[in-house]
């Protein structure tokens, strides 16, 4: 529906807010290409320069990635997620794995203590989707399904701060997983998450924490060289 036409600065803010809502709502997922500039002009009922200004503003904030000759893509779901993606894009992969292990272990422990029946049903469904993605052989689909399952585990902790932080780190963690899994799914990169879900279901906090902590660090042979004492 076309936006109202107040003064230019307020209109630009409306367009920025409308585009941001498409991203944060999941209507435009991370990695997807957003509609072209002419399409946005038609959808929003505003001038081309206003759309261009809004897109540039969101690109500056890290939510969008403008690729000359290709289009504009969603890079992150929040400004903080965009900042984190840029900040940690070149981080040592082992350090990313250790961060993920620490966050997920604590979240899984809380999830085992606090999960609801609704949480468990959702985790069951997401684990099945993860298995289906693996069986399809589509590496990107598997990365997405795996990341969604792990975010749901963190959400089952019912710690809103931890969940928000993990979500903001989402693209950093997906980049790590893409690199670890590789372009083709191979048996040595597969990790069964059934024990993790069973531990959460049964309320076994220690086992849930141990299972979650082990996954990111069980990388393919030769992936990392553990430091002395590991």
UniProtKB/TrEMBL annotation:
Keywords from the UniProt entry: DNA-binding, Transcription, Transcription regulation
Domain of life: Bacteria
Keyword Metal-binding: no
GO molecular function, a single term: DNA-binding transcription factor activity
SMART domains linked: FCD, HTH_GNTR
PROSITE patterns: HTH_GNTR
Pfam families, alphabetized: FCD, GntR
Segments forming domain HTH gntR-type: 9-77
Annotated signal peptide: none
Record's protein name: GntR family transcriptional regulator
């Amino acid at each position: 529906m076309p936006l109202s036409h107040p003064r230019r600065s307020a209109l630009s803010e409306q367009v920025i807010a409308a585009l941001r809502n498409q991203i944060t709502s999941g209507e435009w997922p991370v990695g997807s290409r957003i509609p072209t500039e002419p399409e946005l002009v038609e959808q929003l009922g505003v001038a081309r320069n206003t759309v261009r200004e809004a897109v540039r503003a969101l690109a500056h904030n890290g939510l969008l990635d403008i690729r000359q000759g290709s289009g504009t893509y969603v890079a992150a779901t929040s400004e903080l997620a965009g900042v984190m993606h840029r900040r940690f894009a070149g981080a040592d992969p082992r350090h990313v794995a250790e961060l993920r292990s620490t966050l997920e272990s604590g979240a899984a422990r809380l999830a085992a203590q606090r999960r609801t029946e609704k949480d468990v049903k959702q985790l069951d469904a997401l684990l099945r989707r993860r298995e289906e993605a693996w069986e399809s052989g589509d590496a990107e689909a598997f990365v997405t399904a795996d990341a969604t399952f792990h975010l749901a585990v963190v959400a089952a902790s019912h710690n809103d701060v931890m969940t928000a932080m993990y979500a903001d780190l989402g693209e950093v963690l997906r980049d790590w997983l893409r690199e670890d899994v590789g372009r083709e799914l191979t048996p040595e990169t597969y990790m069964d998450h059934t024990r993790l879900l069973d531990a959460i279901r049964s309320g076994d906090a220690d086992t849930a924490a141990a299972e979650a902590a082990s996954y990111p660090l069980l990388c393919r042979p030769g992936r990392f060289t553990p430091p002395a004492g590991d």
